[in-house]
Amino acid sequence: MIDTAMLMAAGLGKRMRPLTATRPKPLVKVAGKALMDHAIDRLAAGGIRKVVVNVHYLADTVEAHLRADRHGIELLVSDERQKLLETGGGLMHARELLGDQPFFCANSDNLWVDGAQETLGMMRRIWDPDRMDALLLLVPLARAHCHNGQGDFHMSPCGQLSRRKTAHVAPFVFTGVQIMSPRLLVDPPSDVFSTNIFWNRAIEAGRLYGVSHQGLWFDVGTPRAIPVVEAMLAHG
Prior knowledge:
Blueprint: E1 4-8, E2 29-30, E3 33-34, H1 35-45, E4 50-55, H2 59-67, E5 74-79, H3 86-93, H4 95-98, E6 103-107, E7 110-113, H5 119-126, E8 134-140, E9 153-155, E10 161-163, E11 172-180, H6 196-204, E12 208-212, E13 216-219, H7 225-234
Parallel strand pairs: 1-4, 1-6, 4-5, 8-12
Antiparallel strand pairs: 2-3, 6-11, 7-13, 8-11, 9-10
């Protein structure tokens, strides 16, 4: 049972300005609830018992919010106050807190709603540590609400992933949710780097896999996205 998760919450939230001038992006509210709380509630509902949250921008505010402990799970802070480490560096910095077993990792600015199956449970059932170093939750580009990209990955019939080629469109978008093996968290190129380094290694080894999300997913990256997301959530 994978019951630990990393929640990425250390970014500067530049695209969410001016809302992030005085508050960190994870505490921007959507449908009456902070983005961070949407993510933590989904993780808790999916059986997660420990969440490691990295902090940098307005870190004291995020920590105070976490101390309110309304979620009934263990919340630990990975402190990046001194230096923003990006996603890969953030994972390496939190390595000891995450433990030695596979774990979920989720972005705090993406909001997902379960489809016919509970999302994290579905991912656990598909996860195969003998074949996989990471399992990414993907959403078809056509259903990537409020997302302006051209897709991230192609997925084979068996679930293996490959990158979108330059000047092409790919059919799947990364939702910000994944299962990772701790064996990926080795040999960092520096202290500041992207998770893409880990994914590239997994692709080269044929061990990066994906699964298509059956529910709703929203990229809540800008203020313009918020009323769109709220309207869709209100209408189910």
